[in-house]
Amino acid sequence: MTTAREIMSSPVSTLSHRESLYDAATELFRRGVSGAPVCNDDGGVVGVVSQGDLGEAWLLGDARGRTCIADVMSPDVATALPDEDVKDVAARMVFDGIHRVVVVDTEGTAIGLISPLDILRAVVAAGPFETRAPPREASRFASWPIESVEERQAK
User: Fold this and answer.
1) Collapsing DSSP states into helix, strand and coil, what is residue 97?
2) pTM for the full model?
3) Which fold has domain 4-154?
4) CB neighbour burial string for 84-104, b if at least 16 within 10 angstroms, e if fewer
5) What are the residue boundaries of the structural domains of the chain, listed by start?
6) What are 14-36's pLDDT values in tens digits?
């Protein structure tokens, strides 16, 4: 059995529930991640915020960063214990439409994060497996022309 501890990204980067949208977006960009657990002053996980959450709030009118993360985060946090079977974590992610699971210790402190990419890495590492098409087949799509918004509007 592969456990959550074996595939999680760690250490986990968290954000404070008091951070502004601007500071949070800057921090996610700097770290190269699409979302992060949100912690209160005691270090407890109180939510999860994604680039989508921040972008939506930004588009709806808080361009000056006055709103803090606590106002836009999802308070429903999917968690897993370190020794939980990855198959159970993956099934929950699929069936509940979850993009990140926070791995917590017995005190509820975030010690890792599992994303779909972490699950895929575990699948590939477990290999070998057969694919229907060689990976290079996907490269044919990379040559498709991509129009800019201006080009599409000009047509």
Assistant:
1) coil
2) 0.72
3) CBS-domain (3.10.580)
4) bebeebbeebeeeebebbbbb
5) 4-154
6) 999 998 888 888 898 998 888 89
Using the 8-state DSSP alphabet, how is residue 110 labeled?
A: E
Residue in 81, 83, 121 with CA at minimum distance from that of residue 101: 81
User: Over 80: is that where the pLDDT of 116 sits?
Assistant: yes
Residue 103: both structure tokens together:
């791995």
Backbone angles phi, psi at 117, to 5 degrees: -65, -40
Render the burial of 136-154: b for 16+ CB within 10 Å, e for the rest: eeeeeeeeeeeeeeeeeee
Write out pLDDT tens, residues 40-89.
888 889 999 988 888 888 777 755 555 788 888 888 899 999 999 999 99
Q: What is the C-alpha to C-alpha distance for residues 86 and 31, in angstroms, rounded to an integer?
A: 25
